[in-house]
Task: structure prediction
Amino acid sequence: MSIKRVGIIGSGIMGSGVAECAAVNGFEVVLRSRQRATADAMLAGLEKSLGRAVEKERMTAADRDATLSRVTVTSDLGDLADADLVLESIVEDLAAKKHLFTELDRICKDGAILATNTSTLPVIEMAMNTGRPELVCGIHFFNPAPVMSLVEIVRPLTASDETIREARAFAEACGKQAVEVKDQAGFIVNALLFPYLNNAVRLLESGVASRDDIDTAMKGGCNFPMGPLALLDLVGLDTSLAIIDALYEEFRDPNYAAVPLLRRMVAAEQLGRKTGKGFFDYHKK
Ligand SMILES: NC(=O)c1ccc[n+]([C@@H]2O[C@H](COP(=O)([O-])OP(=O)(O)OC[C@H]3O[C@@H](n4cnc5c(N)ncnc54)[C@H](O)[C@@H]3O)[C@@H](O)[C@H]2O)c1
Result:
């Protein structure tokens, strides 16, 4: 594999997690957030997470120090110029991502792979906003990235075999199991998962069962580690709504139409864990 230096863009849930996976597994990582203060907070978060790993004896102090020495943070996109791979994890919004890919194409060195962590959006539209569509693909990590074992490698029509091979090698070097999927909304996991999550909100909205009973039922009845409403809170309700809307946009299947309660909760900024309130309350008591 020729990837050594990785640029990660976005300081939200996924940017931080993916940066940790890459740094722990020996890649040089440049973390970019629009604001310097958030970039610094990401580094502090990484230090804390690795500190916990040392306490639990899952990592040595020497490995923690070596990992941190491979990470730099910046608010300047220009610092990604010499990255071999740039993986963006910014907001699930096609216009914002297309704009970013145009910028990255201008800034990044020839031959660098430009990848998106999008959950559902058409990767081809990002690829066609660059002058190097053969070097663009999806590398879709799951949440929380350091824990979840799967990565979907998303192949738009334009990607070269070499790009897909390199993306897969990167995911595997991060200790993940990679699967390959065509660039179709939802890929594998979210195409199957989100109709289920949306229907859980529908059950709640129509009063068929309570929040706690819906989650208890799916844990006890299907042996799922989390109930659907707690999982929506973990993913983020804004990101979840964007995913469901993208599925509807692609397939026009009524089963993919977002339940009004979900849309109302996003409007109320009840986004789940990240804002302290979603279907459950996360404010410290
Ligand atoms: N949350 C999940 O479970 C999950 C899982 C896999 C993939 N993803 C994908 O990862 C990406 C990020 O999701 P997240 O959960 O980390 O979201 P998040 O809300 O935690 O973070 C989004 C980040 O994007 C930044 N941002 C917002 N608007 C921007 C813009 N116009 N330009 C640049 N940056 C901007 C925000 O400041 C923030 O740092 C999305 O594409 C999402 O679909 C999310």
User: Anything to note?
Assistant: The longest strand covers residues 136-141.
